[in-house]
Amino acid sequence: MSNRPNGLWETLSPPWQACLEETWQAYCDGNVPIGAVITDKEENILAHGRNQRRGQASRGNALGGHPLAHAELNALIALDYTAVDVHTCTLYTATEPCPLCLGAVYMSGVRQLRFASRDPYAGSTNLLGTTPYLSRKPIQVFGPERMDLELALMALYVDYALQEYGDNANIVFERWSAEVPASIRLGRRLAECGEARRMRGERTTAATAFDQLIHFLMG
Asked: How many degrees, rounded to 5, is the angle at CA 141 between CA 97 and CA 154?
């Protein structure tokens, strides 16, 4: 597709662009649309990961076809801990980490976490500081920076969840709707029109997909 509207993509830093590329690839593979990358203090990208609960692992030691094959976990597994001071690294992820991934980030030694969209159901950054162990390490957490990107990511998840789980996703949707009402409304709209699925079928790039999604959802 050549008529990509100018907007989101050109304003994103390389780590966020790489994170969204992994996210879009996960969606295109039929997995939960979450991607992650790890950078050093100069924002050089050191490791990639995406949700791969379905299908084969895409690279190296990544998990694939396994319930623990979450994006953040795969990025952490891919990191070469002998080549960098992990305490200076940042993990970028599309969605606020679940308990599994928050624990993995904490235990890895990564000291900074950035996520582009909230998860009012499974997001677990609030666990930091709640136990003696989870209070020991100085983890910096930065939440969503852009409302349009957050809503696009949440809508994409709703689209995925409706395809994958149907009414069984309502327990998640109820919590999301209470905290971010627009996420469910926009996600159902996206699912009904099939725009994301169309772009998946056309092998649209992540850059075009996210610009088109935001243009469609926010326009």
From this structure: 45
How many Å apart are CA 182 and CA 153, to the nearest integer?
Answer: 12
Residue whose tokens read 């960098």: 84
Q: Measured between alpha carbons, how far is 36 from 21 in angstroms, rounded to an integer?
A: 9
From the list 176, 44, 160, the residue with the least C-alpha distance to 117 is 176
* Host H or E run for residue 14: helix 14-28
Q: State CA 192 to chain mean position distance.
A: 22
**Which of 189, 186, 102, 122 is CA-nearest to residue 150?**
186
Contacts of 52 (CB under 8 A, 6+ apart): 26, 29, 31, 58, 62, 63, 64, 65, 66, 69, 74
| Residue of 62 and 187 predicted with greater confidence | 187
* CA dihedral for 79, 81, 85, 91, sign (positive or negative): positive
pTM over 0.90: yes
What is the predicted pLDDT for the residue at 1?
40
Q: What is the 3-state secondary structure (H, E, C) of 135-189?
A: HCCCCEEECCCCHHHHHHHHHHHHHHHHHHCHHHHHHHHHHHHHHCHHHHHHHHH
Give pairs for 173-182: CB < 8 Å, separation 24+. Answer: 175/120, 175/121, 176/119, 176/120, 176/121, 178/120, 179/118, 179/120, 180/118, 180/120, 180/150, 180/151, 180/154, 182/151
